[in-house]
Write a sequence for this structure.
């Protein structure tokens, strides 16, 4: 079996986890702040809040920015449902902006058009959530300019993108956003089993997120309504959650961070080799903006189905039969029944629809070998047992 993505765990990762298991704290110990520090330092951000998932981080990021009933949040339809669900958790309305035809990220042109209309109708979003699909940054400079013009906040869903860069800055720097969120699910670039993190340069936003991660409780006298009753004292001042990550996971995260650059380098050499193998074939390989350095979480190709003379589903079948677990990232969010009920129409998202009819994610992860890559490309073209091209 060749999955589309998988974790890479070595002996140092295992040793890191074992050492926490033998220590005093399994959770709420020293490894969580160490993990937050190593990630925020890597990204050049002042603050970070680690959570038990990126979904949780997106939720508390929305709450920290005051997203509430009556507010509107916009994101890309070509993402995992969590990018949109976070707004609904807060009671807000969600809407989608169509994607760019080359990068498949939220289109800055469509965003600009939609904002102009929204302003006329008094329906401007409070937050826009650009998603860095496959690890390539969105056009953050343009989106940031629009945020200044129309007065919305930006949360980067950088779940795919730790280790990537934009305009020479690490993704997650929050140079063009209020908050950036990473995921550490095993298929992502680095893993903690489950886990996520919200980064920001705002002490205030980070303070709120730290509190919301743990029931809305504070232990800082300055944040309390009156002086502490005693040494035992704490106050719940917001309605928070238990979104804490464990020290076991945070130690794994620190160990994985030390391997991040090596992972991304490996992913680049895999992508480069696919680019060569696929060069003259009827597929569109991933377009890269000149100011972007992708983490290559995914390697997405667009199939020229007419030239291949095959249906989208038949290609999936062919791969599955060869034991290659290709995937489609993603089903446009508005197509899910839960969202369809809200009245979204696929006619409003022509680029997303066209993408959905042709896209496929082929395997990419650090351990993937050149031989396996050749086998993947061969399986794209010929059913098992037919002639080989290499
Ligand atoms: C994986 C993913 C998430 C959710 O991450 P979890 O850590 O599993 O909660 C959110 N957004 C995108 C774009 C993702 O790929």
């Amino acid at each position: 079996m060749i999955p589309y993505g998988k974790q890479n765990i070595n002996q140092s990762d295992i040793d890191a986890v074992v050492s926490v298991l033998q220590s005093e704290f399994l959770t709420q110990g020293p490894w969580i702040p160490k993990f937050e520090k190593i990630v925020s330092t890597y990204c050049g951000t002042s603050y970070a809040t680690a959570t038990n998932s990126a979904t949780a981080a997106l939720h508390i990021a929305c709450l920290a920015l005051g997203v509430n009933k009556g507010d509107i949040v916009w994101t890309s339809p070509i993402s995992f449902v969590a990018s949109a669900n976070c707004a609904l958790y807060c009671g807000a309305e969600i809407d989608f902006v169509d994607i760019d035809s080359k990068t498949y990220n939220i289109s800055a042109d469509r965003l600009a058009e939609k904002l102009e209309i929204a302003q006329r109708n008094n329906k401007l979003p409070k937050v826009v959530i650009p998603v860095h699909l496959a690890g390539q940054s969105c056009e953050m400079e343009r989106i940031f300019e629009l945020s200044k013009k129309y007065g919305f906040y930006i949360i980067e869903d950088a779940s795919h993108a730790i280790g990537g860069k934009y305009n020479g800055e690490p993704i997650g720097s929050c140079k063009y956003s209020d908050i950036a969120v990473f995921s550490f699910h095993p298929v992502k670039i680095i893993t903690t089993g489950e886990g996520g993190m919200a980064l920001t340069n705002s002490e205030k936003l980070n303070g709120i997120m730290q509190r919301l991660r743990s029931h809305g409780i504070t232990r800082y006298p300055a944040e309390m309504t009156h002086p502490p009753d005693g040494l035992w004292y704490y106050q719940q001042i917001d309605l928070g959650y238990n979104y804490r990550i464990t020290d076991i996971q945070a130690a794994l995260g620190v160990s994985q961070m030390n391997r991040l650059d090596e992972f991304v380098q490996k992913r680049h050499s895999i992508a480069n080799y696919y680019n060569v193998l696929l060069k003259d074939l009827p597929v569109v390989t991933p377009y890269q903006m000149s100011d972007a350095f992708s983490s290559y979480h995914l390697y997405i190709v667009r199939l020229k189905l007419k030239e291949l003379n095959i249906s989208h589903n038949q290609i999936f079948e062919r791969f599955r039969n060869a034991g290659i677990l290709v995937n489609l990232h993603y089903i446009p969010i508005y197509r899910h029944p839960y969202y369809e009920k809200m009245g979204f129409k696929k006619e409003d998202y022509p680029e997303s629809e066209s993408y959905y009819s042709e896209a496929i994610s082929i395997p990419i992860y650090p351990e993937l070998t050149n031989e396996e890559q050749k086998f993947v490309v061969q399986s794209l073209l010929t059913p098992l047992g037919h002639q080989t091209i290499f």
Q: What stands out?
A: The chain has two domains: 2-257, 260-381. The pocket of pyridoxal-5'-phosphate is lined by residues 53-55, 79-80, 82-83, 131, 157, 159-160, 183, 185, 196 (CB under 6 Å).
